[in-house]
Amino acid sequence: MLVSAAIVVGILSTVLATSTTEQDLIAALNAGGLDVSRHFNTALLTSSTPGSLSGSCSHLCAALPAIFPGRVLSNGSAADFWSQQQAEVQPACIFRPADSHQVSRGLLLARLTKCPFAVKSGGHAAFAGASNIQDGLTIDLSALNSITLSSNRSIAHIGAGNRWLDVYTALQPYNLSVIGGRVSDIGVGGLTLGGGISFFSGIYGWACDNVANYEVVTAKGAVLEVNLDSYPDLYWALRGGGNNFGIVTRFDLTTHPQGLMWGGSRLYPIEYKTDLINALVQFGEDAPKDPNAALIVSFAYAQGTFLVNVDIEYAKPVVSPPIFSSFEAIPAVQDTMGIKSLPEITLEFKQSNPDGLRESYWAVTFKLDTELVAFIVDTFMTELRAVENATGLIPAVVLQVITTDMTTHMSKNGGNALGLDSSEGPLLLLNLSFMWANAADDDAIMAVLESITAKSITEAKSRGLYHEYLYMNYASQYQDVVQSYGATNHERLQTVARKYDPDQVFQKLQPGYFKLNKAPNSTYPSSK
Fold first, then answer.
1. Domain assignment of residue 512, yes or no
2. What is the pTM of this model?
């Protein structure tokens, strides 16, 4: 007999409220309409004998197609991932649930069989195992792609499997948008849970600061509506805390009016390096005068030449607003600026973020300072010589300002978990972004990335300009993101996790991405 979704949620919440033994998991699944004994030998599931069914992903993946017809892929290569490193990982199977209640049952079955799992939204993380898992269960949320508006259009209900282009395109006829990603095919889930910088963050804050409600599947299988009133502690933790507290299946995002805007990019010769660095710092200091402005400055290398690409966006269809006058005064060799829609701009951004290559991101934060920026750029240009002939190499130092407007917005709705404060002034967010073609170059390129990062941090510390914060969405697998949020926030996040995940399912059974107490990989490339 089938049981309604509401009853299933209540049963799961009650049965798993205090205990999560195998018998409890079986009872919860049975109560929810799934006869576990039809698919598994329950005697083996509850046995502690070594070599029993417990712990076997192969048995889980053999059973899932019958439990969820048409929702399971046995071919790991069928998943869509941005980087080669992620695509090379081969899970035992891929589960594509149709709704949050299928997510709940899949999670409980993974727990029951002790099968390690990963959760994928857009699959845009760079390093292996971030949202895919070797020989485990990859839960692919791509089918959770609904997009609806509340009756007064103030909230957009966004399924966690959506890409930002789909979200913006759906909202465009209403002259509305939400705070989200800047590259068309980035997924909603990872970007929002890691913070989420937007073209409009000067006006409204980061993506995590504009979530009114989360639909979350907890470790106990309960499907919760999490907001400031219902579960304020979990709501706070999800605003920057990553995948450590549950599987978010829907984001209810606050909408804002948005029509056409002015945006594009300008390409400059490297001889204007000093002028462009000065313009970047000036923008950071002036940003509160015009929060409609957004800026990314990238020092890159292509075909034997260093270049500077500047991405400029303005929330209104206003050509050449004064805040960008310093950049306008510098001669560009290429200019794509124009009045465009938000979807058009995200598609343009996609062109500089190709998929199918090997990828690595590294993140560091500093206090904004002209001489430090110059040091970082010079270090990049020097260190790159060791790998400049690597096949398909596309390296860049990507610089953005975390403006005081952005950090001011982080205090709304009870604050977020990131540990940033507007009193610290404008901050410089460094993203080392390298792409290349061949695995044979991995060690050499990662050593260069590590060296640039280490030298930049050492120089910043010597000048009193280092900030411990790491932006999750740009961090490498060798960086401990969550502890960079500060000791107080780190302890608070651990307290929330102990409450909602007492068995540490999202720390141990979901081992990928940035966990509460460690980097994904604690061994730096140079230590190998």
1. no
2. 0.94
